[in-house]
């Protein structure tokens, strides 16, 4: 059963598949919205065939599609199309991530649906958006990571092109799609009118370049990768200690002084070469050598408490298992239990949006089997 939430009066029709669209509708579902996935008969969402698997069930699909309902419809079939149109007539939001033009060719594009259902919000997440010379092209996450500049500033100088370790092209598009939908819902509350939300994965990658855009705008030189350090703040990187690496982020002069004291390097506070952040950034390699010479004398368990006591932002370098097990992560409800379609439990990432008036359940409903909710939905529609 869906837990209540701030969006529990909304019905979302989800025609999307794989990640960008389903990630957006997962967030909406976690916030209480009812999400009905409309899937292809026979195969369903492509991500049902993407691993890792438990038996023949995809954990990838189950983690992103928790709490949703599923009905399989062929939109070229007259009977299935009638079911779809009955669903849309009740819906608040439709989400799809086809290439631009696919829904229009089915006679179900924005212009048609808006004329029939003026309050409907229609959100389309695509690789390149609905306009521009590349609008017709297909895209996956890695394509937009490459085209959007993210890969050019990821990795180590002189290294091979490096993809960001999660699908930030899809996930960023999913997040912006949610923002667009919520903005359109707010606007509808004032005007009574739905609208079209157009989100491009490539646009999202440009939007999150942040400091890289500023550096290029000022210097005229395209920035490259810097490994694990910040391009404009020093010390702000991963540094080696006796048994691995820790991250230190001393973002201002006061923190720099506190860091030196914690490492018994107080004499360096008077060194004019390191007097400002700009000078420290110019000397980032020298500072790394100085800090690591001190840090290598003891393990992380020695240094982290000292740095924390001094008020210096720092942290251990966790793998995924360590991150999921961390007491702070657990205390914040960021590891939840959901389930595969057959009910087998599955751990998943929780919802990072915490709201004072709504619970944050530790257990979320299972992902649906393909077409599992057909009879219930047809009965509800009177069909």
Task: Give an overview of the whole structure.
By secondary structure, the protein is α/β, with parallel strands linked by helices. It folds into 2 domains: 11-208 and 329-381, 3-Layer(aba) Sandwich (Rossmann fold); 236-319, 2-Layer Sandwich (formyl-coa transferase, domain 3). 38% of the residues lie in helices and 15% in strands. The strands form 4 sheets. The chain has a 6-stranded parallel sheet, with helices on both faces. Strands 9-10-11 form a 3-stranded antiparallel sheet, with helices on one face. Strands 3-4 form a two-stranded antiparallel sheet. Strand 9 (236-241) and strand 10 (244-249) form a beta hairpin. Helix 1 crosses helix 7 and helix 7 (168-191) packs across helix 8. The longest helix has 24 residues, at 168-191. The chain starts with 10 loop residues before the first strand and ends with a helix. The model has no long low-confidence stretch (mean pLDDT 96).
Given as residue ranges, the uncertain stretches (5+ residues, pLDDT < 50) are none
Radius of gyration: 25 Å
Strand count, sense and barrel status of the largest sheet are: 6 strands, parallel
Would you identify the CATH H-level superfamily of the largest domain? Crotonobetainyl-coa:carnitine coa-transferase, domain 1
Number of β-strand runs: 13
| Known CATH architecture of the largest domain | 3-Layer(aba) Sandwich
- In total, how many domains does the architecture comprise? 2
- H-E order: EHEEEHEHEHHEHHEHHEEHHHHEHHEEH
Give the N-terminus to C-terminus distance in angstroms.
Answer: 23 Å
Assigned CATH class of the largest domain: Alpha Beta
Class of secondary structure makeup: alpha/beta
Task: Give the helix level as a range of percent.
Answer: 25-40%
The share of residues in extended strands comes to 15-25%
Question: Counting H and I runs of at least 4 residues, what is the number of helices?
Answer: 16
CATH fold group of the largest domain = Rossmann fold
Strand order of the largest sheet: 5-2-1-6-7-8
How does the overall form come out from the CA principal axes?
A: elongated
